[in-house]
Write a structure and sequence with these properties.
The structure holds two protein chains of two kinds.
Chain A: H1 5-14, H2 21-42, E1 62-63, H3 73-77, E2 83-84, E3 87-91
Antiparallel strand pairs in A: 2-3
Chain B: E1 3-14, E2 51-52, H1 53-65, E3 69-70, E4 73-74, E5 77-80, E6 90-93, E7 100-109, E8 112-125, E9 129-132, E10 138-142, E11 149-155, H2 162-178, E12 191-201, E13 211-216, H3 219-238, E14 247-251, E15 256-259, E16 272-273, E17 280-281, H4 284-293, H5 298-309, H6 313-319, H7 323-336, H8 339-357, H9 368-379, H10 385-398, H11 402-408, H12 417-430, H13 432-439, H14 445-456, H15 463-476
Helix pairs in contact in B: 1-4, 2-3, 5-6, 7-8, 7-9, 9-10, 12-14, 12-15, 14-15
Bound molecules: zinc ion (ZN).
């Protein structure tokens, strides 16, 4: 086994996801399969090949420092479960 | 036991671009909450962040100014954590391949010089702003700041005292403001600093357990927080305890640091390359262009002022404290051809006026041309130094040129020999008693005669000429 159920629980917690016991078992198996496949990829000889972080061979995609019009305030707030004045309202995160 | 503090600082500086780092929303401070937002900085799914080229240019400037090695290729990564001021659930930052590494800055403490290493400089986006409700269990989120460009400057743990920390921060601040890539406003959060600090026995080389200090929004508070934390850790260690590795917040009102409470946990950010942003490559050509655009940095300017204008190091330090002030002084020095006089007038008079009125040099009503003219007039003997002191007050109040003021007030100095000779002989004639005493050897009465001449001319006589003529004429009697 490449990954334990505890590790799945830890990662789930970091991602703020909740799973049932059955789901956890299933996810552990699935993640294991993925990692086993990675092992297979690791066997490929990559000597002299630079690590890459993107699938496309493109560099330096820039925009110029120009201000565009922002969203209409109402639209910006449209998805907010709760608002107060012009701000998003959230549960207090410090005491 | 003697303990030695080991301090490393993380500085976040907001870059002075017009638009955000990955979208075109304005970076202006103080706008209506959430009015500078768009799908990109609100973290809507399916949007594409695109890097603002000016952010890279500004970050490169700082990297070059602090002697960093620029990485030819750097990448953006996602730093994953949940917090209400972070709409995407991750911050776009740089991790494995930052823009620049291995730099240094030189600081001065207690008259000595010391080099502080810079581990890395990278670009990232700022988070939004949270306002906590004092009375209700609610916080309010303003995402105008989300996506404002930052550079993070991480120092090596080379700092050994609160004073050194202060000197290092002031140096970084000065460089950023000089290059006009950050406004340096600490109250508005444009320049922020977190500190890592640990103590170790003086002979020890391994580091002790460190705490991270946050929530300090002025140079003074950073120094106070570090001083407090040094004392606190020393107390813990001396009493056989051990320092807990934790984040502590500076409480300005109480003058203490307290452990941060709440849901903050051991960080596991699970960094990974951001697939939305392609690699950044900086070639020689681009670097050369940036190098050419760098202004003369404060330390270099200081040395040049001492060398070229023959002014004391302290004066050069004051005059180069801001780029605008340095430019002002240099303009006066060049226009008048009298750098020492220029330095004196700027240091003594101009800075006092500005200080009294809480004004900046850019708002000074006396233009460099006017001050240079004043210096030239004194030098030519048209007015005395004493008269000039009155003239400069008038210049500051009215913004008029010294020539105009002198004419208006009839302040022109009497430097005509014949006129002065007449005044002197009448003064001598009117004071026979003092004259005989003087001739009998009471030398200090010479001053009395000078005073009488100045009085008779309402202070307008050229004092040097009066001295000269008086000496001659008294000797002739
Ligand atoms: Zn935006």
């Amino acid at each position: 086994m490449k990954i334990t159920k505890e590790e799945v629980e830890y990662v789930a917690h970091l991602a703020r996801l909740e799973f049932t016991e059955t789901e956890k078992v299933r996810l552990t198996t699935q993640l294991n399969d993925i990692l086993m496949y990675m092992d297979k990829l690791n066997r490929v000889n990559t000597t002299g090949v630079e690590p890459m972080s993107h699938a496309i061979a493109l560099i330096n995609a820039f925009r110029q420092d120009v201000v565009w019009e922002s969203l209409d305030h109402e639209l910006s707030m449209a998805n907010a479960p709760e608002t107060k004045g012009q701000s998003f309202k959230v549960p207090k995160i410090i005491d | 036991m003697e303990y030695e503090p080991v301090i490393g600082l993380e500085v976040h500086a907001q870059l002075l671009t017009a638009s955000k780092i990955f979208c075109g929303c304005s970076t202006e401070f103080g706008a209506i909450p959430n009015s500078h937002t768009c799908p990109v900085c609100l973290g809507m799914p399916g949007v594409l962040p695109v890097l603002n080229k000016k952010v890279v240019e500004y970050a490169l400037k700082m990297a070059l100014a602090t002697h960093c090695t620029i990485n030819e290729t750097s990448n953006f990564a996602r730093k994953n954590y949940f917090y209400p001021d972070l709409p995407k659930g991750y911050q776009i930052s740089q991790y494995a391949q930052p823009l620049a590494e291995h730099g240094k800055v030189e600081i001065e403490v207690n008259g000595g010089k010391k080099v502080i290493g810079i581990t890395r400089i990278h670009m990232e986006e700022d988070a939004g702003k949270l306002i906590h409700d004092e009375y209700n269990p609610a916080s309010y989120v303003d995402l105008n700041r989300a996506g404002v460009p930052l550079i993070e400057i991480v120092s090596e743990p080379d700092i050994r005292s609160a004073e050194e920390a202060g000197a290092y921060l002031k140096r970084l601040h000065e460089i950023l403001v000089y290059m006009e890539i950050c406004d340096g406003n600490m109250e508005e959060g444009s320049f922020r600093c977190d500190a890592n600090i640990s103590l170790r026995p003086k002979w020890e080389t391994a580091f002790g357990t460190r705490t991270e200090l946050k929530n300090m929004n002025s140079f003074r508070n950073i120094q106070r927080a570090l001083e407090y934390e040094i004392k606190r850790q020393r107390y813990v260690l001396e009493n056989g305890g051990s320092v807990a590795q934790e984040t502590r917040l500076w409480d300005d009102a109480q003058g203490v640091t307290n452990p941060m409470r709440g849901k903050e946990e051991a960080h596991d950010y699970r960094y990974f390359p951001d697939p939305d942003l392609v690699s950044l490559t900086v070639d020689e050509l681009w670097l050369e262009e940036i190098k050419r655009s760098l202004p003369e940095l404060p330390l270099k300017k200081r040395e040049r002022f001492v060398r070229d204008y023959q002014i004391p190091a302290y004066d050069a330090g004051v005059l180069t404290s801001s780029r605008a002030l340095a430019d002002y002084f240099e303009a006066v020095a060049k226009l008048s051809g009298k750098p020492k006089a220029a330095s004196n007038w700027v240091m003594v008079d101009i800075l006092k006026f500005l200080n009294d009125d809480k004004r900046e040099i850019k708002d000074c009503p006396i233009l460099p041309e006017s001050l240079a003219q004043l210096i030239t007039l004194i030098d030519a003997g048209a007015i005395s130094g004493k008269m000039a002191k009155d003239v400069i007050v008038e210049m500051y109040e009215t913004g008029k040129s010294p020539k105009a003021i002198i004419e208006e007030k009839g302040m022109v100095q009497i430097a005509d020999e014949e006129t002065l000779k007449k005044v002197i002989s009448s003064v001598i004639g009117a004071n026979p008693q003092q004259l005989s005493q003087f001739l009998a050897g009471k030398d200090k009465l010479f001053g009395y005669f000078v005073g009488q001449v100045m009085k008779a001319t309402q202070g307008k006589a050229n004092p040097q000429l009066v001295n000269e003529l008086l000496k001659k004429m008294l000797a002739e009697t």
